[in-house]
């Protein structure tokens, strides 16, 4: 599980891409293209390999006027699944 | 029929290859170099693919590194907005070329593995010294930092090496391994007696993969293609015919799957004459087995039909002689029992020799009878 102090980043070979044909954001990774909903896109766009998960959820909470705990809870599962597929890594 | 846009395109840049694996998925009739699409044609096809909705481009062959313009092609594909994956044996790549591919923006490399020892790998690939070269390339890939998938192709002769193949993937720094049991199309169909795994091997592999998935969770992702003939349900081939992906052969013919040329009545369009968009939506080969209207019983009334689309058309053609039949791997197919006992016979043939794939323009070797 990703904790508030973890610093996530997208490893080489995994990147956000705007799919102009389907008019949606996708995450491109080896052998996979994952369609992102608004929340997924918003959180992945914030991930920069420098700020912690806690700081990112705070920033999103302010931006979308939603409780930070809720954003953390909603996105931890999604990010955990990406981590299991090695589409997301945590800074050592 | 309203088809959705494709997600993935396999570009078979060439059929030329220094190796001659007896399970090569290329057709028996290999495209000669003079018939290959040129650089400009490929670059145009990449742009057309991106416009059509393709996100993932797999550059394959033969050996794609035999194309002198490989780096230019990667540049063009990235400019078109595609995710680029190079499927290679590693032969033909050196330090200078790998750095050029890095600069060109290559996203990912998939390295094939014919065996885990030089003896096995060089025998299966039919290329002496190939294993040693591959190991050098793997070290360079790691050093440069390309994301890597190791693609271990397994069959009766090398299935015992599976645990070592998984270890090697971890040592190479691969994030992912494809444990691919040979699928019997193309050249592999000529080698069923030499390559068919035994039922015991197939079940052992299931168990090894299951354990490794658990112990390597978060380190190595394992994608597994189990032994087809020893299964009771067919694979969802190509994610469903004409739903997800397309293949462009070296000469520009556009195929719904890499083995589709084995279905004799299909007619294929060529990117030299038509746009990829027109071919995808209107081409007769793509519409032949799209959806479910073409299905026969038992598929027609089966509740799995939107899950597996009746399995593989090429396999139905090869084994049953009718491309619209239920994939004989399916337990509901009237040919399932015969296929399983055939598989058992093949897997206990101890005298069969390997028939290696030939080079483009050369005759197909026949087994000594
Ligand atoms: S009968 Fe056809 S649709 Fe049903 S499981 Fe078998 S192959 Fe799939
Ligand atoms: S099932 Fe047939 S059509 Fe589909 S990929 Fe396999 S060989 Fe090709």
From TrEMBL, chain A:
Pfam families: PqqD. This is Pyrroloquinoline quinone biosynthesis protein D. Keywords: PQQ biosynthesis. It comes from Poseidonocella pacifica. The keyword S-adenosyl-L-methionine does not apply. Monomer. Interacts with PqqE. GO terms for biological process: pyrroloquinoline quinone biosynthetic process. Coiled coil: none annotated. GO terms for molecular function: quinone binding. InterPro entries: PQQD, PqqD_bac, PqqD_sf. The keyword Magnesium does not apply. Pathway: Cofactor biosynthesis; pyrroloquinoline quinone biosynthesis.
Automatic annotation (TrEMBL), chain B:
Binds 1 [4Fe-4S] cluster. The cluster is coordinated with 3 cysteines and an exchangeable S-adenosyl-L-methionine. It catalyses: [PQQ precursor protein] + S-adenosyl-L-methionine = E-Y cross-linked-[PQQ precursor protein] + 5'-deoxyadenosine + L-methionine + H(+). The lineage of its organism: Bacteria, Pseudomonadati, Pseudomonadota, Alphaproteobacteria, Rhodobacterales. It comes from Poseidonocella pacifica. The keyword DNA damage does not apply. Gene3D superfamilies: Aldolase class I (3.20.20.70). It is an enzyme of class 1 (oxidoreductase). One of its GO terms (biological process) is molybdopterin cofactor biosynthetic process. Interacts with PqqD. The interaction is necessary for activity of PqqE. This is PqqA peptide cyclase. Its EC number is 1.21.98.4. HAMAP family: PqqE (MF_00660). Signal peptide: none annotated. The keyword RNA-binding does not apply. Keywords: 4Fe-4S, Iron, Iron-sulfur, Metal-binding, Oxidoreductase, PQQ biosynthesis, S-adenosyl-L-methionine.
């Amino acid at each position: 599980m990703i904790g508030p102090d973890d610093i996530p980043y997208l490893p080489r070979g995994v990147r956000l891409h705007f799919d102009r044909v389907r008019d949606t954001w996708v995450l491109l990774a080896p052998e996979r293209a994952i369609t992102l909903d608004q929340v997924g896109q918003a959180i992945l766009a914030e991930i920069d390999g420098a700020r912690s998960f806690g700081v990112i959820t705070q920033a999103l909470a302010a931006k979308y006027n939603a409780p930070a705990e809720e954003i953390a809870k909603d996105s931890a599962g999604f990010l955990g699944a990406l981590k299991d597929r090695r589409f997301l890594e945590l800074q050592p | 029929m309203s088809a959705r846009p494709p997600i993935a395109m396999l570009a078979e840049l060439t059929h030329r290859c220094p190796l001659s694996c007896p399970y090569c998925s290329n057709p028996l009739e290999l495209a000669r170099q003079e018939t290959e699409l040129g650089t400009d044609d490929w670059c145009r096809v990449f742009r057309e693919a991106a416009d059509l909705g393709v996100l993932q481009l797999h550059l394959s062959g033969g050996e794609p590194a035999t194309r002198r313009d490989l780096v230019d092609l990667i540049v063009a594909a990235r400019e078109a907005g595609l995710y680029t994956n190079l499927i290679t044996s590693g032969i033909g790549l050196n330090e200078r070329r790998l750095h050029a591919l890095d600069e060109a923006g290559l996203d990912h490399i998939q390295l094939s593995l014919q065996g885990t020892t030089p003896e096995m790998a060089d025998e299966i690939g039919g290329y002496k010294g190939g294993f040693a070269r591959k190991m050098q390339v793997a070290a360079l890939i790691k050093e440069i930092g390309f994301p890597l998938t190791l693609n271990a192709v397994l069959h009766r002769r090398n299935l015992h090496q599976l645990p070592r193949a998984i270890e090697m993937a971890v040592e190479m720094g691969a994030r992912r391994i494809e444990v691919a049991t040979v699928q019997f199309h193309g050249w592999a169909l000529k080698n069923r007696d030499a390559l068919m795994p035994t039922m015991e091997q197939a079940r052992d592999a299931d168990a090894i993969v299951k354990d490794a998935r658990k112990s390597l969770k978060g380190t190595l992702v394992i994608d597994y293609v189990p032994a087809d003939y020893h299964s009771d349900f067919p694979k969802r081939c190509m994610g469903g015919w004409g739903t997800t992906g397309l293949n462009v052969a070296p000469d520009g013919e556009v195929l719904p799957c890499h083995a589709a040329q084995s279905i004799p009545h299909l007619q294929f369009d060529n990117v030299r004459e038509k746009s990829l968009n027109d071919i995808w939506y209107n081409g007769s080969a793509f519409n032949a087995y799209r959806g479910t209207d073409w299905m026969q019983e038992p598929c027609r009334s089966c509740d799995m039909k939107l899950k597996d689309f009746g399995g593989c058309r090429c396999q139905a053609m090869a084994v049953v002689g009718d491309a619209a039949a239920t994939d004989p791997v399916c337990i509901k197919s009237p040919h399932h029992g015969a296929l399983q006992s055939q598989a058992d016979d093949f897997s206990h043939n101890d005298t069969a020799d390997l028939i290696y794939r030939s080079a483009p323009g050369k005759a197909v070797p026949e087994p000594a009878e």
